[in-house]
Amino acid sequence: MGLLVLLLGAAVFLNYVDRGAIGIAAPLMKTELRLSATQFGLIVSAFFWVYAPVQLFVGWLVDRFSVYRLMAGGLVLWALSTLAMGLAGGFASLLVLRILLGVGETIAFPGGSKIITRHVPPERRGMANAALALGIALGPAAGTLVGGMILASFGWRAIFLAFGVVTLVWLLPWHRTTRGLDVVDEKVEPNVPIRFLIGRWSLWSMSIAHIASNYVFYFILAWLPLYLTQSRGLSIPEMTLLATLGYAAQAVAALTFGGISDWWTRNGRSEASVRRGMMMLGQLVAAGAVLGLAYASTKVEIAVLLCVAGMATGALSLNTYAVAQMFSGPRAAGTWVGFQNAVGNLSGIFGPVATGAIVDSAGYGTAFVVTAAVAAAGALWWVIGVPRIQQIPV
């Protein structure tokens, strides 16, 4: 099932290319459409208004219907929404299209986790989730690099048009690879009621941990291009290079940590202890890197700190879903990850708006300090809040 996992990673890659396109387009789009920082924050946030709550329904769906067809349908919706943003005329149309993008992209992680728990054994779970984490990292990296070049040469609208068309190409290999899997997997796993999962503290504790890790990542994804160009005075090519460097470090870290965690597990170490430790350390390192970025004075310092933040985010994105899969098992993976993502992405709803308001009133420095504090609180939560990591009895 290597090709299946590879295609899941590619779907997540395209997911983050498309959702992050607005951050790359922001330096020109914000000016042309006369958007305030608060309006821009609302547009970024609109994605999560539906992305978070619809996760609950989508997670329920993938545990009961064809996860392979649901993956394809969600991708079509988000690709067309991305493409249409290139035709947007102002605040209202961008807001609506970001909402539709959020609906389409809800399928990626509940669907991906369902497929991984169904087809991948525990000793290979690290690398399988590393494929998803690689997509989380390389999506913004490629989106920043390619999008930055498109922005400089063709303007902001061309970014959305190009990304939307490219995303649709994924459907061809997906259809060929998953043909017949519905028949093989039909009714293998009895359903787990969502009311049973909601009564488990492990689900709530993981959802809270997810909020902390997402807050840092979405802060960097949405606000870094504006910060580097507006506050630091970097040109668009310079911004593109530095941001891409950070995402590249995140990709390398995800693959490295995925391989290490699998190696440790195969050699008898506790998978639960390894992943908890990576999450605690990742949150602390992310906090330090973000705080450092608020006071970095040179391009070299910014580059180094972005790489450190990227490495931390690679560990977080890998293990957040791997631990969720350990708790849920294959029968409940879709519903579990759907719920966890719904709560975890509340930081995507409130974070961009809060950051926009902070930037408008107190400047970028305060926004960086607040983000670092959230990351540090996440490290503490893995010590006091997340219970023993083991599959819940179902």
Structure, explained:
There is one protein chain. Helix content is 85%, strand content 0%. The chain has 394 residues and is mostly helical. α5 (108-119) crosses α14 (299-344), α6 (125-154) runs antiparallel to α12 and α12 (236-266) packs across α14. The longest helix has 46 residues, at 299-344. It is globular.
**Major sheet details:** none
| N-to-C CA distance | 26 Å
Taken from the alpha-carbon principal axes, the silhouette is: globular
Tally of separate helices: 16
Total number of domains: 1
CATH homologous superfamily assignment: MFS general substrate transporter like domains
Which structural class do the helices and strands define? mainly alpha
Total strands: the figure is: 0
The CATH topology turns out to be Growth Hormone, Chain: A
CATH architecture annotation: Up-down Bundle
CATH class identity: Mainly Alpha
As a percent range, the share of strand residues is under 5%
Q: Averaged pLDDT, please?
A: 85
Fraction of helical residues: over 70%
The succession of helices and strands, N to C, reads HHHHHHHHHHHHHHHH
Radius of gyration over alpha carbons? 20 Å
Low-confidence stretches: none
Subcellular location: Membrane
Keywords: Membrane, Transmembrane, Transmembrane helix
Main location: membrane
Protein name: MFS transporter
